[in-house]
């Protein structure tokens, strides 16, 4: 177990960019720790094309966490400081969460925002009781010690791997330890919610049905990140083609092509990641285009969209 030793906390020293740890070894469960500014993940926020009201609602919920919770008792409004983002893989939940952290940092004005990313897979242990202990130390000690220093934003990706739906556990794969780890996480979340109103945890999940219902009930907001509609598909295509055109200038002509909307319509049903990769698929229909993506055509994109969507439907039916 490694504790956080606050030698020069970044809220007092604007030049300090990282929390100083008591050990050179990484703290178990923490993938990234830094002081976050408003621009670091701003591009990620802009790259995710979801309804504007969804982004605005997320930002308001995040801001409310740091303005209301420190001043209003949980007996009045029982906020835990948890936001849960759910949706299909590739819809941009993680990018949206990172962007939210930067946007929130921009609203903190003179205050600094500590940013942590949790790696839940590193907390599982084969020996009985190891996962429970690791979870307790992560939430009850490490995250708590960061939150003691000032406003803290925690990204907990793939939360279903850490807080498993206990009602669905079988007798396989050491379920007792998994059950206890979930119990420990919920107990510590209650403690963090009580003691640290300047802490916000944003969790993401591709499989919301696999999350324990007690965690869902503790979430202050559960937000579904949808697959992109036609307008969003076209915006993603335009963004990706514009970026590609920085290296292959002739691709820029496709951004204003009159048939790009038809390609976008063929992309409905894909997630944002698939749409961006689909452009690369369009470059694979001839050796000439693979050697020089400047030769990419709107017909290539249309064909790639049809192929990618057909493959997605085939995989879903399998």
Uncertain runs: 1-25
Strand content: 5-15%
Q: Biggest sheet, open or closed, and with what strands and sense? A: 6 strands, mixed
The percentage helix is 40-55%
Q: What's the quaternary structure here?
A: single chain
Coarse structural class:
alpha/beta
The strand order across the widest sheet is: 1-3-4-5-2-6
Coarse morphology: elongated
CATH top level of the largest domain is Alpha Beta
Second-tier CATH architecture of the largest domain: 3-Layer(aba) Sandwich
Query: How would you spell out the order of helices and strands?
Result: EHHEHEHEHEHEHHHHHH
What's the number of domains?
Answer: 2
How many helical stretches? Answer: 12
User: What is the H level of CATH, i.e. the homologous superfamily of the largest domain?
Assistant: P-loop containing nucleotide triphosphate hydrolases
User: N- to C-terminal separation?
Assistant: 44 Å
């Amino acid at each position: 177990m490694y504790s956080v030793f606050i030698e020069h906390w970044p809220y007092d020293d604007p030049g300090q960019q990282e929390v100083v740890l008591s050990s050179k070894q990484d703290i178990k469960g923490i993938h990234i720790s830094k002081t976050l500014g408003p621009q670091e993940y701003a591009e990620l926020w802009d790259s995710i094309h979801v309804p504007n009201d969804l982004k605005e609602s997320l930002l308001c919920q995040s801001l409310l966490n740091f303005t209301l919770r420190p001043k209003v008792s949980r007996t009045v409004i029982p906020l835990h400081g948890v936001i849960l983002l759910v949706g299909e893989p590739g819809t941009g939940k993680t990018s949206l969460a990172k962007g939210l952290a930067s946007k929130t940092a921009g609203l903190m004005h003179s205050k600094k925002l500590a940013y942590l990313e949790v790696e839940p897979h590193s907390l599982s242990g084969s020996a009985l009781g190891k996962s429970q202990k690791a979870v307790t130390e992560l939430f009850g000690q490490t995250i708590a010690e960061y939150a003691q220093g000032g406003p803290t934003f925690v990204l907990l990706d793939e939360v279903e791997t850490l807080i498993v739906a206990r009602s669905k556990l079988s007798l396989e794969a050491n379920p007792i330890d998994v059950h206890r780890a979930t119990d420990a996480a919920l107990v510590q979340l209650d403690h963090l919610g009580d003691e640290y109103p300047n802490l916000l945890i944003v969790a993401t999940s591709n499989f919301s049905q696999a999350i324990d219902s007690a965690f869902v009930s503790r979430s202050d907001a559960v937000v579904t990140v949808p697959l992109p509609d036609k307008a969003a598909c076209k915006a993603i295509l335009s963004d990706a083609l514009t970026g590609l055109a920085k290296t292959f200038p002739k691709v820029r002509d496709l951004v204003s092509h009159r048939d790009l909307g038809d390609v976008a319509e063929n992309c409905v049903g894909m997630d944002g990641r698939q749409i961006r990769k689909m452009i690369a698929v369009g470059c694979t229909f001839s050796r000439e285009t693979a050697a020089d993506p400047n030769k990419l055509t709107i017909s290539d994109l249309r064909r790639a969209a049809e192929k990618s969507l057909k493959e997605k439907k085939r995989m879903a039916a399998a």
